[in-house]
Structure formats: C-alpha cells, structure tokens
C-alpha cells in the first residue's frame, strides 16, 4: 500500500487515510514513552509485536461479540481499521493494585482487588490524563449515560475474556487501559472498542514469578523490555514455539 495522508500521530501509533471512505490505516511505531512523554526511547520491533498481539486480541474479542474498529492486519506494522470518533476517555480496568492506584490509595502493589474496578481518565495530555468521576462525564457531555453504561459493560466483558486468555498462558492480567469510539451507522452511531490492546496498554505479570512483561519495564528502568513483549507474543502463539523468541523472528515469519 502506498503512503497516504497522515491524519494523526500519537505517542505509539500513526493514523493514515484509508483506501476507502470510513477507513484508516493504523501504523504501530517503535517509540516508547512514559511520564507523559517526558521519557522516550526507540525499541526496535516493538511496533511489530504490538500490531500482532493487538490483532489477535481484537479478532478474539470480535468473535465473542465485542464490536471493534479492527478490520484486518495489512502487514507487519499496519492494520486497516474503521474510522471512528474517539470518545475522550481512557477506560482503565483493574484486577490487582498497581501503578497510580497503589500510590493514590496506599494499597500495596500486587494486592488482589475485591472485584474488578473500572476507572475513567480524561484524554488530555496537557493535564496528564486526570482521573475523573462519572459525574464529570455527564456534566461536561463527554458521553451520555447510555454510552457510559455500555462502555462499563463492554469493559467488564473484555476483562473477563482477557483474564481467561492470559491465565491460560501463565500471565496475570493486573490491569489494562482501552479507548472507545463512535462508529457511524444508519440510525446514529455505535460505540466500539478502538485503539489497541497490547503490552503497551496492559500490566501483565508472570503468574509464578510476578515478573513484569509490559511497559512498566520501560517506565521503571527494569530492562529487557523487548524480551518481555516477545515473551507475551510467544505465549499467545504469535511466535512459533520452535523458533528463538526474538524480534527478528516475528518479522521474518509475518505472512501479511
């Protein structure tokens, strides 16, 4: 596919004009950022891994009835997606205390929560994506009550599925962050899962050792970031078991 007009560039992805109306090409970059982009690095092959992992998860979620923007993977770094109007919320689902929740509430990292907790943050980089209440969402018109209810319901269904998926490969799903968008349909719009689900947007710990297999390795200077992402891809079956799990292998074995 020839390069098309750039629509938007974020920290980890670029959106290009799609081949037909109502579509976009989502390109996964190798850039890694933390602390609201104050900390930056380039991790060779990260975009390839995230593309493949997110593809797998989006396809699986679609199979259980979760509507998503995903259409198909185009190549190692790009996906064809439906163009949606992003709802300006980051939706976080937590199963285990970690990150800002531990710091904010004084809960020891690693403590299992009584039940999954859904939080909302406003998508506003200049404000460091502040935590907000549902009342803020309604008062400022960021989403309707019906949309919020739908988002919470879908988020909990996604959480149920992802917990089973990752448990099956020996990974503990600590928490994850997702985004939703409004997809135009004949009678208005449909709320659909957008963006990505990958080690960039999830906290994933090995169930036996609690070794972190996600972006916290970059945030906390733990090292071996690419190796951790590769391990997640290997366990999910994105990498072939008989191959040495490194970034070159996933690129060389890409079929798209």
What does this structure look like?
The chain is α+β, with helices and mostly antiparallel strands and 256 residues long. It folds into two domains: 6-84 and 225-252, Phosphorylase Kinase, domain 1; 85-206, D-amino Acid Aminotransferase, Chain A, domain 1 (2-Layer Sandwich). The chain is 29% helix and 32% strand. The chain has helices at residues 46-63, 99-105, 134-139, 145-167, 216-219, 225-235, 247-252; strands spanning 6-9, 13-17, 23-28, 31-34, 39-42, 70-73, 78-82, 85-86, 89-96, 112-122, 131-132, 171-185, 188-194, 202-206. The strands form three sheets. Strands 8, 9, 10, 11, 12, 13 and 14 form a seven-stranded antiparallel beta sheet that branches. The chain has a five-stranded antiparallel beta sheet with strand order 1-2-3-7-6. A two-stranded antiparallel ribbon has the order 4-5. A hairpin with a 3-residue loop joins strand 1 and strand 2 (13-17). The chain is globular and about 50 Å long.
Fold topology:
Blueprint: E1 6-9, E2 13-17, E3 23-28, E4 31-34, E5 39-42, H1 46-63, E6 70-73, E7 78-82, E8 85-86, E9 89-96, H2 99-105, E10 112-122, E11 131-132, H3 134-139, H4 145-167, E12 171-185, E13 188-194, E14 202-206, H5 216-219, H6 225-235, H7 247-252
Antiparallel strand pairs: 1-2, 2-3, 3-7, 4-5, 6-7, 8-12, 9-10, 9-12, 10-11, 12-13, 12-14
Helix pairs in contact: 1-6
């Amino acid at each position: 596919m020839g390069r098309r007009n750039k629509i938007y560039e974020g920290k980890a992805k670029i959106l290009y004009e799609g081949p037909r109306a109502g579509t976009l090409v989502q390109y996964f970059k190798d850039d890694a950022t933390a602390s609201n982009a104050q900390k930056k690095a380039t991790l060779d092959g990260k975009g390839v891994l995230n593309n493949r992992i997110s593809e797998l998860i989006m396809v699986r979620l679609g199979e259980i009835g979760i509507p998503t923007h995903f259409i198909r993977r185009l190549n190692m770094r790009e996906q064809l997606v439906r163009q949606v109007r992003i709802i300006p919320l980051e939706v976080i689902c937590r199963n285990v205390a970690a990150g800002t929740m531990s710091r904010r509430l004084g809960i020891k990292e690693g403590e299992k929560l009584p039940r999954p907790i859904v939080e909302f943050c406003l998508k506003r980089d200049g404000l460091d994506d502040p935590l907000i209440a549902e009342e803020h969402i309604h008062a400022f018109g960021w989403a309707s009550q019906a949309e919020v209810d739908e988002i919470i319901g879908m988020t909990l269904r996604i959480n149920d599925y992802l917990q089973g998926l990752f448990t099956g490969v020996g990974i503990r799903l600590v928490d994850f962050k997702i985004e939703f968008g409004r997809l135009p349909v004949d009678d208005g719009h449909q709320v659909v899962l957008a963006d990505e689900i990958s080690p960039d947007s999830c906290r994933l710990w090995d169930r036996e050792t609690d070794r972190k297999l996600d972006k916290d390795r970059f945030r906390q200077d733990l090292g071996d970031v690419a190796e951790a992402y590769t391990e997640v891809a290997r366990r999910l079956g994105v990498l072939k078991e008989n191959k040495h799990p490194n970034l070159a292998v996933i690129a060389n074995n890409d079929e798209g």
